[in-house]
Design brief:
Elements (H helix, E strand, L loop, with lengths): L13 E4 L6 E3 L3 H10 L7 H14 L13 H19 L9 H11 L6 E3 L3 H10 L3 E6 L5 H7 L8 E4 H4 L6 H11 L6 E5 L2 H10 L3 E4 L4
Parallel strand pairs: 1-4, 1-6, 4-5, 6-7
Antiparallel strand pairs: 2-3
Amino acid sequence: MPLNLAPLEPRPQVIFLDAVGTLFGVKGSVGEIYGSIARQFGVHTDEALLNQAFFHSFKAAPRMAFPGASQAEIPQKEYAWWEAIAYQTFSEVGVVEQFSNFGEFFAGLYDYFAKADPWFIYDDVRQALDYWQSEGITLAVLSNFDSRLYPVLDALGLLYYFSSVTISTEVGAAKPETAVFQAALAKHGISADRAWHIGDSLREDYEGARKAGIRAFWLNRG
């Protein structure tokens, strides 16, 4: 992440950061985690194939946003969204019928990703966050994620850095849609030209932020 902001005046009032792939990532692979928990339910499959199937299912899914849903409905909709992806993932590798109770398996899987265990913080993150805070810049998270982001940030010791957290499921719009960026800006009462956005997705983070009028930085961790 950029640390020396001097050549990039005027400095932003708020820096928005994406979450997964920017602040923290999955330990190992999603396939390894899915496979490990599936073995606890007596289901064995190739983790590399499972990982491929997950990303195929994830990319084919609709954006994780539920326009028109009430706040009370959102947790159930988030859960169902991820359960459909998990079911499709195991279907694609041909083992979904081996589960005696897929719902019980998925409940454990879903809860696991709300903890610190499956995640790691990128090495450059704390240094960057500490530096920006020392410069008096407000930090915020803007992510296409679900409500588990709050306990994950807290468990990783990152939540205290951020003045706000904006997630697609609560807004009803997902990056690269302009509405989710506008919702984040509104929380801080600032115009787009007073903010930056940093994220690992060229389309969702960089292009989406630019379209919203926010200065954008693509963090290419690949």
